[in-house]
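One chain given next:
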Amino acid sequence: MLSKKYRYIKRNLIVKRSIAGLGLFTKESIERGGFVIEYKGSILTEKEANLKGGKYLFETSKNRFIDGSSRKNIARYINHSCLPNCEIEILRGHICVFSKRKIKAGEELCYDYDKEYFDEIIKPLGCKCLKCKVK
């Protein structure tokens, strides 16, 4: 179970259009190092995850994956960025999103999806993050 410290934090977040499609935005400022949201979903074994496939699978340990494909999991709308304002921490099997810096109200939330995902999924189509689009 997620620590009480984070369980009751409910951020004012909204899903709306972003530069990369749909994205998750904050309607309030978030302090540096602040808990943002938990990435939630069904728990799958490695075998189940391999059979299911998809873009919303998140590995939490060698044989444990979270399937975040449900639209109830609004954390799934956090897009990749090469210059992210959030980062992921896995705490007791829970995927927690924290702010890397102070985030202003109205900003899109984003984190680095990591090299493997980037190279396999994002790079072939071209990165659509704000940092790469401005180049």
